[in-house]
Design goal:
Elements: E1 2-6, E2 9-13, E3 27-29, E4 32-34, E5 41-46, E6 51-57, H1 61-79, H2 84-99, H3 101-112, H4 116-139, E7 146-149, E8 152-160, E9 163-167, H5 173-186, E10 190-194, H6 201-210, E11 219-221, H7 226-235, E12 241-245, H8 248-258, E13 264-268, E14 274-277, H9 283-295, E15 307-311, H10 315-327, E16 331-332, H11 348-363, E17 367-370, E18 374-375, E19 381-382, E20 385-388, H12 395-398, E21 405-411, H13 414-422, E22 429-433, H14 437-446, E23 451-454, H15 479-485, E24 487-495
Parallel strand pairs: 2-16, 9-10, 9-12, 10-11, 12-13, 14-15, 14-22, 15-21, 20-21, 22-23
Antiparallel strand pairs: 1-2, 3-4, 5-6, 7-8, 8-24, 17-20, 18-19
Helix pairs in contact: 1-7, 2-4, 3-4, 4-5, 7-8, 9-10
The chain binds nicotinamide-adenine-dinucleotide.
Length: 497
């Protein structure tokens, strides 16, 4: 292992990275890997080393149509199962992932530049998602039958929606696939999933390892670009619901394409989470919270604690504590130990985007209190960065940077804190730091975000719903609410006269 000294940060690099076990080449359609109809391929890169790992098909509209046909053919049989059967399959999938934990971790880290710490958490959460959905699918009931009109008895049936198209992002490739696959199958649907073109490997590996557990056609995976493969899933007349986790722009395009067939749309989009630190807060705990939740996965996290709003009376003290925390963050390539906190950016393009945002910060005359620079390659590493002296409405505090960058603004009253926190197009997540019980009860109620933590940030529970308001979309992942989102209700009324 070698250590490169760059500014005040050390980058720990593993001397050799284990070669991950790659999935087969091809599209996973109707229970087998088959050739794509497209000759074009996409390189899959290790962003921590810039090495090409493999290539996958840049799929076509015809690939999607074949996968959707397989999902349609499988839909009746899978929908006819009672909850016990999909639940048993989900439990077996969880066991398969658990017994291949190291393989999935290595593959995920190699494809994303994630540290061991994050990859470990991703795989544990993936397993938990499948286990939770197995139980939730069996425990999920509708209202009992009753009379609401004279001489008529009403019965509510919960039915699968049918064929679900799923589009996933690159930041948590396997986990985001699991957040969809588990409730979609648990609710009795079949699916066609398109992983991010940059990070398809763990999703394809999952398909390879679970082939024998599912009837052919229940799960299909098609790789390729969003504008071709993702767009076809959104517009396909035989896809009954399309679910995307991704940026606001991609979500808007998916919703527009979906409108031609009036299908249901499930949107989990971007975020810019405010962290509201009141004067009475435990400032050390808040600074430590931002260290872990602002820089988790290198800040490539939709709920990242990336926008601090701190009361002006404690801003100086809090900033000092935060800068001390962030100066101490460890950076490294995958395979460099469980205590390494942040890895590389996902790609050269994204690295350039984050650096351009930091360049704009400098042009705007804001203060970079720590970090702010690229780190020498190979690999797309950027220093963990804190930007201070940020005025209301500054670009750095309102656009999603999706990198290791936290900005700090100040406020003077509770009303201003709430108004400024809500002044964003996003509505995914926020946190409030206070020791005052009235504030801890009242402020979360006034914040326009799907998740609000009090004295914490980015703690996710599989039993609890995850999803946003406003520009962050309206789908709910995790919890039994996800089963609702992937089900439809039917009312049957019997005339007893
Ligand atoms: P992205 O929007 O670029 O891509 C997401 C997926 O959408 C990819 O598979 C991509 O190929 C596909 N896509 C792109 N254009 C499309 C189109 N026109 N039609 C159909 N599909 C299309 O996002 P990304 O860069 O992969 O991921 C980062 C984004 O995801 C961030 O904005 C982040 O906040 C968001 N995200 C949100 C959550 C959440 O739970 N809300 C979780 C993770 C990531």
């Amino acid at each position: 292992m070698s250590t490169t000294k760059t500014s005040s940060f050390s980058v720990v690099r593993a001397e050799s990275t284990p070669v991950p076990s790659l999935p087969p080449f091809g599209q996973f359609i109707d229970g087998a890997f088959v050739p794509s109809t497209s000759d074009t391929t996409v390189h899959v890169v290790n962003p921590a080393t810039e090495e090409i790992l493999t290539k996958v098909p840049a799929g076509s509209v015809e690939d999607v149509d074949a996968a959707v046909a397989a999902a349609v053919a499988a839909k009746e049989g899978w929908a006819a199962t009672t909850p016990k059967e999909p639940a048993a399959v989900l439990l077996r999938i969880a066991d398969i992932i658990e017994s291949n934990r190291e393989l999935f971790k290595t593959l995920e880290s190699a494809n994303t530049g994630k540290t061991s710490m994050v990859a470990e958490d991703d795989i544990s959460s993936t397993i938990d998602t499948f286990r939770f959905s197995a139980g939730a699918a069996r425990a999920y009931n509708t209202l009992g039958a009753d009379d609401y009109a004279e001489n008529h008895t009403s019965v509510i049936f919960r039915e699968p929606v049918g064929v679900v198209g799923v589009i996933t992002p690159w930041n948590y490739p396997l986990l985001m696939a699991a957040w969809k696959i588990a409730p979609i199958l648990g609710a009795g649907n079949t699916l066609v999933l398109k992983p991010s073109e940059q990070t398809p490997l763990t999703t394809l590996k999952l398909a390879e390892l679970i082939t024998d557990e599912l009837p052919a056609g229940v799960v299909n995976i098609v790789t390729g670009p969003g504008r071709v493969v993702g767009n076809r899933l959104a517009e396909h007349p035989d896809v009954d619901l399309v679910a995307i986790t991704g940026s606001v722009g991609s979500g808007q395009k998916v919703a527009a394409s979906a409108s031609s067939s009036v299908k249901r749309v499930h949107l989990e989009l971007g975020g810019k989470a405010p962290v509201v630190v009141f004067a009475d807060a435990d400032l050390e705990a808040a600074a430590q919270g931002v260290r872990s939740a602002g820089f988790w996965n290198g800040g490539q996290e939709c709920g990242a604690a990336c926008r601090v709003l701190v009361h002006e009376s404690v801003a100086e003290k809090f900033t000092e504590l935060l800068v001390r925390e962030v100066s101490d963050i460890s950076i490294g390539t995958p395979g460099t130990g469980v205590d390494v906190e942040i890895g590389s950016m996902i790609s050269g393009d994204h690295y350039e985007r984050v650096l351009a945002a930091l360049e704009d910060v400098r042009k705007d005359g804001l203060t970079i209190a720590v970090g702010g620079n690229a780190i020498d390659g190979p690999g797309y590493f950027i220093e963990p960065t804190v930007v201070t002296n940020v005025p209301a409405g500054a670009a750095i505090a309102s656009t999603e940077i999706f990198g290791p960058v936290v900005s700090v603004e100040t406020f003077s009253t509770d009303e201003e804190a709430v108004a400024r926190a809500n002044e964003t197009i996003y509505g995914l997540a926020a946190s409030v730091w206070t020791k005052d019980s009235a504030r801890s009860l009242n402020v979360p109620r006034q914040l326009d975000f799907g998740t609000v933590w009090v004295n914490s940030h980015l703690v996710i529970a599989t039993e609890m719903p995850w999803g946003g308001f406003k520009g962050s979309g309206y789908g709910r992942d995790l919890s039994s609410y996800a089963l609702d989102d992937f089900s439809r209700t039917k009312h049957v009324m019997y005339n007893r006269g």
